[in-house]
Amino acid sequence: xxxxxxxxAVAVLAPLLHSQLITxxxxxxxxxxxxxxxxxxxxxAIGALPSLVAAMAGTLPSPLIPMIPFIITGNIILVMTLKxxxxxxxxxxxxxxxxxxxxxxxxxxxxxxxLFLYATSATLFQFILPQKLAPQIAAMMSxxxxxxxxxxxxxxxxxxxxxxNKNADRNL
Length: 172
Hints:
By secondary structure, the chain is an all-alpha fold. The chain has one domain: Arp2/3 complex 21 kDa subunit ARPC3, CATH 1.10.1760.20. Helices cover 76% and strands 0% of the residues. The protein has 7 helices and no strands. Helix 2 runs antiparallel to helix 3, helix 4 runs antiparallel to helix 5 and helix 5 runs antiparallel to helix 6. The relative contact order is 0.16.
């Protein structure tokens, strides 16, 4: 419960940093960590809140507010894709994943989340935003989503490796 609370706090506070690169990397890292250590249900619960907090705090640009359900869905895609790779691993390491399975899952999850958000935003924004503004806003849902998801996966892996090594030292 404490780990859930800590990860939730980090994910909810991250949007207050006002930087898509930093916020997205942190939120994605938290989603990867929560999936690897707590399971998919708590990870999905955590993934639903950062966008809502960003909207309430005013850090999410108002044209992106209609994207909130899709951002949450993208987070679910990320979590479920990573969770699915657990079944590729015959041994339990780094939380519940082997390193190779974790990277396969993190890369696959990042790409699927990116593709979903990019396709959804490109379609949605052409109908609700002026033609000049739609491409600029849709750009926020393109390559930055892939970058922050991949960086989040790498950051989560580093944290999991440190956690594993720290606990290995205690067992000596």
